[in-house]
Structure prediction request, 370 residues.
Amino acid sequence: MRQPRKHRNDQTNGVHPVFSYRPPKYLSSAKWAAIAAGAVFLLCAIYVAFWFFMAGQLRDGTMAWIEEQRNAGLAVNFKTLDIGGFPFSLQMTVDGPTIAAPKSSARWGWEGEKVRASMRLWRPDRVTINAPGNHAFVFAINGGIQHFRGFAEQLNAALTLGDRSPMPLEANIAGLTLDSVQTGDIWRVGQARINVLAPQASAEKSNVPTLDVRFRMGDFSVPARLELPLGADVERLEISAELMGAIAGGPLEEALSGWRDDGGVIEVQRFSLAYGPVSLTADGTMALDRALQPIGSFTARIEGFFEAVDALRTRGIIKARDAITAKMVLGVMARRSGNGRAGLNIPLTVQQRQLFAGPVPLAKIPEIIW
Prediction:
């Protein structure tokens, strides 16, 4: 007779089922997912705390700077100051900013519509500033007050913070209109770009410039009252120059006089102008005379010279006899370029508020009032 089969009991083998239990794979995956989510949450919490800490530092630093400027005699005010930009940047927006120096000998003031400064958290030394819209400027000159109002479609700048003075600067302007309240003069700038760098001296090169400037301006016009020789509209102006010698602080006229007396000059590596029929490129050196008016000597190539002489004669700036002489003298040196236009390689000089091409006077330069 068949004996009944005995029931297998794992306890008889000395191992309880609880000790041999293996959880399903989905539970193990869920555990690691929970750990990863917790780590991400912790990192996010740390980042959020860091952002708010940096925002507080930015606000406190700005208020401390404002208080410092007020203690130095400047009048600094604003309507509102907000910090935003979370999560990837810090943005400070200032509505109705004003800054003025009412107690200084060179009184001046500025008022803007809105200024926004921003920086990336991982690049706090790089600050971008945007200030389009309306602006107002007031400054004292020759005992009087000049008031200008302006509007810019685009006005931004990038500063690199550090030990250099002045700080490296990149600025862009587009659609700028500036008008004088007193005279009604209107200045217009289609677009402009400026780069300013303060090179640092080293053991190998000690005679470094105080400033390295790159400037480009296009489609701009000046007031007709200035009576520029070829009209008020200029197509393009480019300047690459180095300022040699430091300019001290204080009143501008005194500072420029000191810079001139110490041998200060401007080395112009490139000067390019497209103005009326004239296309000009030049390089040379500029300085200031005893009356603080520009003087300089350049080597230049000019195209469109004959058309310019005709325009100057038509406007009555030069006499017909002088126009004929200029064409005869300088025409001998003219050479045709690849574009078919006659070009001149001649020395240009600026002295006693006159521009000379070789020995021939071309135009009178308006006086600069500092």
Q: What stands out?
A: Helices lie at 25-71, 252-261, 305-314, 320-331. The CA atoms of residues 254 and 264 lie 14 Å apart. The chain has four helices and 20 strands.
